[in-house]
Each structure stands twice: as structure tokens, then as C-alpha cells.
Amino acid sequence: MNISPGEFGSATDPGTLTRLRDRLGLAAEAEGLLDVAFTTLDSPVGTLLLAATPKGLLRVAYDIEDHDRVLDTLARQVSPRVLRAPKRLDVAARELDEYFQGQRRSFDLPLDLSLSRGFRLLVQQNLPTIGYGQTRSYRQVAELVGNPKAVRAVGTACATNPLPVVLPCHRVLRSDGTVGGYAGGPAAKTTLLNLEAT
Amino acid sequence: MKQPFEKVVEQHGGTVLRVCRVVLGVHDAEDAWSETFLSAMRAYPDLPDDANAEAWLVTIAHRKAIDVLRARNRQPTPVNDVPEPPTTLGVPGDSDKDGDLWQAVAALPDKQRQAVAYHYVAGLAYAEIAGILGGTTDAARRAAADGIKNLRKNYPGATKEGAPS
Predict the structure, then answer these.
(1) Which of B19, B24, B74, B131 is the most buried (most CB within 10 A)?
(2) How does B61-87 read in b/e, with b if 16+ C-beta sit within 10 Å?
(3) ipTM for the complex?
(4) pTM score
């Protein structure tokens, strides 16, 4: 007789697995096993990946960064205990939604900045001092952090920002006023700048 | 490099659920699945990168299932009239064919049912199954073969061709 997995498995509909996976996320959180929780959020700048440790929001990633690759990197750098578990990201997702609807000008979220070190961390931490709707040049940011010659290093710090949008590297432009590079692509940077200009 | 645990769940969640259903029946399968993946997540950072994740998960599921089977066999005081035990396999609304298969599978001795599940559903090699069940590779192969023989006898829809080796 032919017993195929399909025959035994005729009752394993996708809905059951979805429900079990949701339950696993909640149980893992309750047991303290959920080192990295993630979810995705639809936004005007594409689908965003949001990831958080128990400490706070760890990573915001654009589609073009390849979410699977980003999760692979988090598994390697932080912990392989990575699970889709939207609950931990509820507040972050809500604040980002409000921001994209023009109803929020700054973020009030616990952050986990452990993906950054040294000068890059210093620059990224100072990005929120550039207020909503304002912009600075890379040079001005270098001066802001007390290292006026480190213009290129500021560019690198912005390019490697693990928390784009929340830490507003999109508000840092070239000295000639052109938008410059962006992890989410130049179009996403322009969209955010236009959003904040209205 | 170790992939995110989410990928492990995505790749093996369905197979582990089918294994749990064959070994325990639909009723207890979901709890066994949940406990299996929770235990697996706890141990995951220590799993060698080159380990066979499916065999590892089935091993954990086997231990969880044994706990359930033991609890079932530890049923209380003898009575004169044994009530008909509720079916642990098959769900209302299943087609007759499926229902019959589940009944036949449920009626197998534990070891045969486990060997059938791990070989025919999870696709594990008999050497791996021997590691899970204890005993030799030959004993694992024999348990699966006996299980299939019993299913042929008791499952009316059986055909004689196409059994995977």
C-alpha cells in the first residue's frame, strides 16, 4: 500500500499551522526564549521589517535590504532564537503608522542599539536632535558630534543605521542639497522628506 | 551558519505536526507540537550547525509523545464495564477513507506506529529511527514493516503498490 505524507497529512491545513505558530510566539515570549521578535509593517516606503529584543527595538529594515538576509544577520549577531511574534512590536508599529499618517513627529520607544558601536553609534544616537521637518548636511552632523573632519564617517554611520526612520538619518543630506544615499533607496528618502515637509 | 529559528518552524512545522498526528492522534497532536517547538527553541543555540534539524525535531517530538502515551496508559482504577474509549484519531467530517486509515493507524502498537510515522511521514532513515526508538536499525526496519503489514490487513483502502522503501 502507498502511505504518502499527503495521505496522513490531509488534515494539516495552513490555518492550523498559522495558529500553532502564533501560539509558539506567545509561549516563547512567556518563557523568556524570544531573543529576537519580528514582524512586518506596510508603509508608504514599502514593507518594513521590525525586529526587537526584550530591551527594545533593534532593527528597522527596508524591502530592498532583503528581509531574509537581515534576519540571517540578526540570527548570527544577536541570537538564532528569532521568531515572528508581532506582539512585542505592537507599540513600534503603532508609532510608525502614526508617523506615516503625519500624526507623529518623534518616537518614544525603548531602543536596543547593540548593533552599533563607537563613532557610528555616537552619530546614530544624535540623529534625533535633528527635528521633524529639518535637515542637516553630513558636515553639520560631523560638527554636531564634535568631529568636524569626520564627514565620510558620518556618511557611513548613516548608511549603516540599524533603525532608519526611527533614528532619522533621512534628514541628513549632501552639502549641495541633493538627498544623497539611503539604505531604503533615494526614493524612500525623498518620500520621508516630503512627508515631513507637509 | 545557523538560520533564524523562524525558518526551522517554517520548513519543518508541517512535517512535525503530521508526525504528532500519526503518533498521538489529532486530539493531542497540537499540544505535542507546541511543546516540541518550545523545547527545540530552548536548545536551538546549542544544536550543531550541520545537524539534521528534522531528525532532531522528530526526536524531541518522540519524547513529548511518550509522555502523553504514558499518561494515557496510566489511566485509573479498573471497572467492570469498560467504556468505549473516545477515538483519538480521525475528526468528524473526515471522509470515510481518511477515518478508516486513522483508525487503522491508531490501532497499531506504539513502536510500529512510531516507526511508520518517522519513516513514512518524516522520511527518516532506519538508522536515525533506531537512534530515536532505541534498539537496532534492523529492529526499526522490522517495526515499520510490521506496521505496514498490519495496516494492509486492517485498512480496506490499501493497495499493494508504491510503498516507499
Answers:
(1) B19
(2) bbebbeebbeeeeeeeeeeeeeeeeee
(3) 0.90
(4) 0.85
